[in-house]
Amino acid sequence: MKKGKKLYEGKAKIIYSTDSKGLVIQHFKDDATAFNNQKKTVIDGKGVLNNRISEHILKNLSQIGIKNHFVKNINMREQLIKHVEILPIEFIVRNIATGSLTKRLGIIEGTVLDNPLFEYCFKNDKLGDPIISKEHITTFSWATKKELEKIDNMLLRINDFMVGMFRGIGIKLVDFKVEFGRLKTGQKTEIILADEISPDTCRLWDSNTDKKLDKDRFRKNLGNLIPAYQEVAKRLGILHEEANVRHVNFSKPKSVKLKKNK
Fold this sequence. Notes:
- The protein has helices at about 45-65, 100-105, 135-140, 145-165, 215-220, 225-235; strands at about 5-10, 15-20, 25-30, 30-35, 40, 70-75, 80, 85, 90-95, 110-120, 130, 170-185, 190-195, 200-205, 255-260.
- It is an alpha+beta fold and about 260 residues long.
- It folds into 2 domains: about 5-85 and about 225-255, 2-Layer Sandwich (Phosphorylase Kinase, domain 1), CATH 3.30.200.20; about 85-205, D-amino Acid Aminotransferase, Chain A, domain 1 (2-Layer Sandwich).
- The N and C termini lie far apart (about 45 Å).
């Protein structure tokens, strides 16, 4: 398969065209960003781990009937995926209160929620990814009511599966963010899971110590992000390829850049 031109570059990934219709290549970068790109650096090896962890989770979700864009792994940093039209919405599922939820509503950090809480954000860095309602989504035709109903059902199933999967390896799934896209096959269009699921997009706490094993280690200047991601991969049983990634330089992150608010 031939890798073509760059189609899109985001904060953590690059999408390239291929010579196969309906398929593109997703490349995982080592860039780490937080606070809508105001804080950023490069952490060597992060993309390799996210590629592997996301592949593992998406393949397992596929086995329980959650259709997603993953096709196959290409190399340490790249996946072959289905080309979809990404909805301009971030779908957030919360099981334990932390982060912006505690700041916005004064909820005590670590409060276990009785039921999964769904939140929807409009994907726009310039606007700060504002929280929106379902009515906003349907009013501005970002998704239909039928599509949202299907997504909500998938979110419940994804959450149920991942809570159980992580609980089995001693990790709490605190919350996670996912994206969905429209896949067109002939005259048919369906909504499928897209983007990635990794410690970049999930909050993961050790079940016994509440040690953070996710990107909050970067957001909160806790350090040791790579060892935390490696711990997640190890517990998932997918770090058996460690011998093949030893040449990756898991050095200290380069200097962090902070943008000053004007």
